[in-house]
Design brief:
The protein is α/β, with parallel strands linked by helices. 49% of the residues lie in helices and 14% in strands. Helix 7 packs across helix 8. Zinc ion binds next to loops. GO terms for molecular function: aldehyde-lyase activity; zinc ion binding. Pfam families: F_bP_aldolase.
Length: 291
Amino acid sequence: MMTLSEVLDVARSGRWAVPHFNISNFVQLKGIIAACAELRSPVMIGTSEGEVEFIGFKVARAMVDALKAETGLPLFLNADHFHSFAMCKKAIDEGYDGVHIDMSKKPYKENINETKQVVRYARAAEKDISVEGELGYIVTDSSKIYKKIVAIPQESLTKPGEAISYIEETGVDRFAAAVGSLHGIAANKPILDFYRIERLREIIPKNTTLVLHGGSGLLDNDFKRAIELGINNIHISTTIRAAYIKALKKALKEKKDETTPYKLYDPVVRAVAETVKEHIKLFGSQNKSME
Ligand SMILES: [Zn+2]
């Protein structure tokens, strides 16, 4: 079976995007994998520091392994927005396939140093670990739905010149850039800086994967255009969470006397799967499982 780096290589040359969805329990994972199995899509399953604190590293790994065996799909586990070398080391030691070291809110030098340390540790591991670094920062939080328009300061966006030195110095495999998207869902009109995406793709090394975070709330055409311009990995979290909660609230309301959890969760799994399928189709990852 292909490694995460190999799947990302194929995505870059084929101009499609590997989807990345976050989970904090088995119900979310079940919905995501049902969609991926139906459409034969590879997928990255992400846990943030908070999410993995709830699930547990070993349980996250075991769930993904079990579903990988059951479906035969290329499923990968990624540490999403981990904020220290120590946490990334823990994820690598626990068998994660990828780590994202996010020091984007720290000063440039500190970001470089901590990221370098993660890359060095990952390269020394027995298996192929894909490392993501981030430069420029996203101003919002994925646990929130913002009712108002959020201001995005120009200095928070990734500067292409700095991106090159950052990638060259750290040696990261995946590069998360701040290009106008937001974590969570805000009232902002989608404001992706397509020129910046295009420019970044032109100048960063060919074998570096350009990652788009904050995919929730973007329009279908935004995804398509971003992929055309060189995004090959897209993170979706809040949209899935929102679909989950909406379906759960509806089920609780409709079946007031139900005491069997899996009966309440059945429509939740289906709602998550539907949302995931829409994204897979937009990202072009359908039938890319490469059996
Ligand atoms: Zn993110």
